[in-house]
Amino acid sequence: MSGIQNSDTKSQVITTFDQHPVFSCASCSAVIALQDELISKAFSGRDGRGYLMHSAVNVKTGKKEDRPLLTGVHTVADVYCLGCNERMGWYYLKASDQSQKYKEGKYLLEREKLIKENNWNLDE
């Protein structure tokens, strides 16, 4: 199942990961990514720190655009939560600089837009 859906309307949130640590939307609590998909915490988003992720779910993409970022111009598309339409970050479609190609096909999710849920069980 693809985690990306292109649409300007809200869609139903469908993906859950029972008993796995996840990042959820800070606005509506929809699951956005498994914590295991985290590549790096050393990224910057529009509104502060960001996480580079292998994948994301329950998101839809906006329009593709060339955007000047700290590491050069990248072709990106903003990603939005399927649950509440909050902008969560962006998806890297293309990097112009060879040293930045590793970002292609990855997500930058803004830390301030996420809740870290560890799913601890205190009864064990």
UniProtKB/TrEMBL annotation:
<dbReference type="GO" id="GO:0046872">
    <property type="term" value="F:metal ion binding"/>
</dbReference>
<keyword id="KW-0862">Zinc</keyword>
<protein>
    <recommendedName>
        <fullName>Protein yippee-like</fullName>
    </recommendedName>
</protein>
<dbReference type="InterPro" id="IPR034751">
    <property type="entry name" value="Yippee"/>
</dbReference>
<dbReference type="InterPro" id="IPR039058">
    <property type="entry name" value="Yippee_fam"/>
</dbReference>
<dbReference type="Pfam" id="PF03226">
    <property type="entry name" value="Yippee-Mis18"/>
</dbReference>
<comment type="similarity">
    <text>Belongs to the yippee family.</text>
</comment>
<feature type="domain" description="Yippee">
    <location>
        <begin position="21"/>
        <end position="118"/>
    </location>
</feature>
<keyword id="KW-0479">Metal-binding</keyword>
<dbReference type="InterPro" id="IPR004910">
    <property type="entry name" value="Yippee/Mis18/Cereblon"/>
</dbReference>
